[in-house]
Amino acid sequence: MPKSQPFSWSRLLLRQTLKNPTKSPLHFSPRRYIYTLHLPTVQTPKPWPTGRISCSFSYSTVSSRAIQDLLAEVEKERHRDREQRKRAGLDTKDIDQEDEEDYMGVMPLIEKLEKEKLKNTGDLNMYEEPTDSDSDQDDERFTRDAVQKRFDEFQRKAKRHQELLNNFVESETLDDTFKWMNKIDKFEQKHFYLRPEYRVIGELINRVKVAEGKDKFILQQKLNRAMRLVEWKEAYDPNSPANYGVIQHEQVGPSVDLLEHAGFEKEKAIIQGVDDDDEEEFDDMKEKDDILLEKLNAIDKKLEEKLAELDHTFGKKGKVLEEEIRDLAEERNSLTEKKRRPLYRKGFDVKLIDVNRTCKVTKGGQVVKYTAILACGNYHGVVGYAKAKGPAVPIALQKAYEKCFQNLHYVERHEEHTIAHAIQTAYKKTKVYLWPASTTTGMKAGRTVQTILNLAGFKNVKSKVVGSRNPHNTVKAVFKALNEIETPKDVQEKFGRTVVEKLSNFVQLQFNCNRNEYLWLESGSLKLLSTKQGIFAMETWFVIVVSLCISYLLKSIFSLVFRDGTTTRKLTATATLPPGPINLPIIGNIFWLRKSFSELEPILRNLHAKYGPIVTLHIGPRPAIFIRSRFLAHQALVQNGAVFADRPPALATSKIISSNQHNISSAFYGSTWRLLRRNLTSEILSPLRVKSYSRARKWVLEILYAMFCLLALMCFGDKLDEKQIKEIEAAQRRMLLAFGRFNLLNFWPRLTKILFRKRWQQFLHLREEQERILVPLINARKTKLQSKVDQSDNKASEEEGEEFVVSYVDTLLELQLPDEKRKLDECEIVSLCSEFLNAGTDTTSTALEWILANIVKHPRIQERLLAEIKGVVGGDGDEVQVEEVKEEDLHKMAYLKAVILEGLRRHPPGHFVLPHAVTEDVVLDGHLVPKDGSVNFMVAEIGWDPNVWEDPMAFKPERFLRDGRGGDADADCFDITGSREIKMMPFGVGRRICPGSGLAILHLEYFVANLVWKFEWTADNGDELDLSEKQEFTMVMKNPLKARISPRLNKSP
């Protein structure tokens, strides 16, 4: 533009129009809206500044010469765009059509300016832009008096508005209130120019902020609809200044047009550079949109060809074509994800479900139609779908795209990742089943169902589609299922009460009552006296006689009242309990009263030989089922793992030890058990956390009580002194050894609390002693953790060289029980710590003792093991070059792993896993397993199965090696979890498998390797080792291991 020509508003108008052309309502770019009430700022008049204030409000036309220049500039822009398209190898057909259509609306604007010019031909100078000679200084609108007048007028309006508000507040009657409300509304609409649609949008925004759930979703849909209407109105209103680029320019200081003659070269360069950047950005965006559109058209064309070819293609070629069509659909989805969306669709994603081609033969020829099914969602509970038809694929897709946003559904998500309960729905011949899943499961569903669930925001759901796989029927069935999800609020409105809360309150009340009763027993003033064997026997038979009488009386009454019940007939009509010895009325199998549980194993072997792999004993009021078959164990614990994953109700003494079954081993199968187990496995037993305790394993290798010291450090996070270790170990062992002596108290708890108050006090005293020792350690850890949080930089610990270790107690302090909505109390934390110490200490130390005993008994095993260690870590002759076998070397020792596995198979620390229970009555191997019974699996008998192991009672680690001589190890790939097949189960199998099995094997490998590497183990005085067993808390050696140990180093280690 030549500098001599004055800058005109129409030129700026056309320039802005070229940069912002009008677009289709489906492809306009998102806009920003600020819904605020703009009022003039109330300020006191200030003295005029020395600089000049210029405020220009000009609406002018141009002369005929200027119009020609504008048209020439338009043609220049089009020519440049056409050349760029040609250089990029793109089609210019659409640009050529613009010459005739004039899609930017420039010509109507010019015609309007020409008419305005012809109407006022008297004074042409009034349409020219102001120059330096036409200053705003002489304009009467900006004089001091005019500004003061406008300020006074606004003050008067503001004062009047405040008076109306005061009258509204002080109104006493309802009629006066409505009168002043109407006056306020009219006054605001007249003087405060706020468009009504923006007032509606503002009100909707305020409501959305406080709404929740489905109400929030409905308000959001209304808000999106209102914003869309405003958006369309502003984009296509011919009277809207935004569409024609009219800019009401208002600024302080010299206006832009004065820069042409004032010599502000820097300012002009900045303005010109900004315009150039905007033009280049617009050109790049338009070029990218054109390229994307061409790709989409090419894919749509390929889809039409493939669908037409699919009509007469069958067999393998047809399946290949279906896969190609799916790939094209996924490619189209990936391209449309990058496309810009309008504001009211922001955050939504659209996926193609299916495209189908139908051909109908008529007299006029073939009529081809395409059907498209699309689904959309925002990954936060809002999902929709639509089905549309069209003569071409793009038309069908466009129709479905518009319709799917008009058919949105709000779906409730449980814990933001899954559904709250299982659902079964059907639509025509299609049935859809949905089940909730845990956080680590992921999405297990077909392609159609998985696409919809992902769009809705679900992450862990299992699904099964039965019957017709028609995509439309499947989509309808899935949406029907999602709409049937019920929340706790829906259940409350449906039944009028919250059953879960009432039940949890009842359980909490019962537990508190039991605790009060225990405290009452503890407060007795009787001294603890040691009972003699004769008194114990007399008490035992006394409770037997009294219990038999009461049981016989109660059973007689119940049989008279419930003898016509149908429940028992229904259960026994199809299946019966597994066989077993004669069940005497009331007393069941009387031999349990004179045999402890440890002496029950020989009797069970005889019963299995007589009745088969599954037998029943009636121990107390509930039947106890014992299984010794590995096939039945796999069927129960793996194939039906969810049903057999429960625990039976704890006995009276067990409830005290486990804090009413609030630990991992005895908790019922549910959310509490999942929380406690997940906390242990992810926070303490994860590979990274286990590796962080490697220094602790090296530390305990050199001291006594090694295994217990290591577990105590992992539990409490501190290296305890020998006195504390012995005190904790003594308290734990007293509780475990005395537990068998108190089985009598479980026979009839309410009666034994009266008859055997002394024994109950002894048991409660042991529990009190355990809490007295462990609670201070827990509180000390809590204080240390709090001080670490308060101090962002613990310089004292750094100076002393201490390292903060995350302990098991640290993870328990912040846990919150999901059902009871509370944190763990001290008694529950004590129970969990006690469980952690017992499970990781006694079982592992027992297994270590058995393995070392067999190494002493079989010197060839020790020699071969030592040779393998030398081959990995190095060493010549009898002198050891490396003092420690490191953890990272253990995976290279195949024979070591074989020795560990053989020790666990031949001498499992526990010959029975903890009793299981079923969540519902089930049939196993043709026998009934009742819900109120307990299921026990014989670990030792399964590991000694002669059908699996040759010479099972011999200690042969070579059985776990492929070639039997120490080649490639089969031990590394041996499935000790039993998921594929059960050959041994020292840690249990299924969902209740021991969570610390990996840690236990690591500890056994580490300690065995280092003990063999540092010492030579031989029998004491050449005596033959006695490998007899004795049942304590675990199956230990009847005669503890005594061996002669000599260091392998020339110097002391």
From TrEMBL:
Q: Which cofactor does it need?
A: heme
Q: Where is this region: Disordered?
A: 121-141
Q: One GO cellular component from the entry?
A: ribosome
For whether the record's keyword set contains Ribonucleoprotein, the answer is yes
The record's keywords, sorted A to Z, are: Coiled coil, Heme, Iron, Membrane, Metal-binding, Monooxygenase, Oxidoreductase, Ribonucleoprotein, Ribosomal protein, RNA-binding, rRNA-binding, Transmembrane, Transmembrane helix
Superkingdom, according to UniProt? Eukaryota
Binding site residues for heme: 994
- The yes or no answer to whether the keyword Coiled coil is present is yes
* Biological processes annotated in GO: translation
- Coiled-coil portions: 293-341
Q: Where is the composition biased (Acidic residues)?
A: 129-139
Transmembrane stretches in the record are 541-562, 699-717
Q: Which Gene3D superfamilies match?
A: 3.30.160.20, 3.30.230.10, Cytochrome P450
Q: Which GO terms describe its molecular function?
A: heme binding; iron ion binding; monooxygenase activity; mRNA binding; oxidoreductase activity, acting on paired donors, with incorporation or reduction of molecular oxygen; rRNA binding; structural constituent of ribosome
Residue ranges annotated for the S5 DRBM domain, each copy included = 348-411
Its family remark reads: Belongs to the universal ribosomal protein uS5 family. Belongs to the cytochrome P450 family.
Query: Protein name, please?
Result: S5 DRBM domain-containing protein
Species of origin? Ziziphus jujuba var. spinosa
